[in-house]
Amino acid sequence: MEIETERLILRPFREEDLDDEFSILGDPDTMSFYPRAYTREEVAEIIAKNIRTFEASGYGLFAVTDKHSGEYVGDCGITIQSIDGEEEFEVGYRIRKEHWGRGLAPEAARAMVEYGFKKLGLKKLCSYMPKNHHQSKRTAEKAGMTLQKEYRNPRNRDILTTVYAIHNKDEQVAIKSVAE
To answer: Which terms does the record give in the GO molecular function aspect (predicted)?
Structure first.
């Protein structure tokens, strides 16, 4: 299963993605808004978990590759995260720093929003990030999300965190017609 956008291919993780994914999750610059960079062993566990989750439920992080060169550029996908004490479906995205500023994260995130609504039938998707992570906030906005709230995140150094969300338009129409 693959998702194709104008410039990207998003596909489920494979074990052989370890080196590429570690180049992102193990990089202190890329992970500066996280509590810390991950070890190689932790990245291997993340990939294995995503493979299992995707096989069982059809969602998880996807490997993101350049459609024309085949180069691994990052990850993007839907996971369940605890956001301000609530379990939410979250669109997450991380792009290799040499590809920052090219609009790849919003392109991948928009594809995940469409996948979540059209293929998985989800009603709501969120993204959350430190309040001062302006690039990530902009990515959420470009994916159609709007600011919902802020909270102190105990899972990430108790920093002020912003939450963006988007609701399935089909679901909103259904709610409106019931209310009429």
So the answer is: acyltransferase activity, transferring groups other than amino-acyl groups
User: What residues pair up with 63 in beta bridges, in sequence order?
Assistant: 11, 75
- What gap in Å lies between CA 79 and CA 50, rounded to an integer? 9
Q: In the chain, how many H helices and how many E strands?
A: 5, 8
Q: Tokens representing 151? A: 């909270």
Q: DSSP state, 97?
A: G
Q: What is the pTM of this model?
A: 0.89
Instruction: State pLDDT tens for residues 103-157.
Output: 999 999 999 999 999 999 999 999 999 999 999 999 999 999 999 999 999 888 8
Q: Which residues contact 103 (CB under 8 A, 6 or more apart)?
A: 142
Q: Specify whether domain 3-179 bears CATH 3.40.50.80.
A: no
Confirm if 59 and 116 have CB atoms less than 8 A apart.
yes
Instruction: Give the per-residue SS3 of 144-173.
Output: CCEEEEEEEECCCCCEEEEEEEEECHHHHH
Amino acid at 155: R
Beta-bridge partner residues of 76: 62, 93
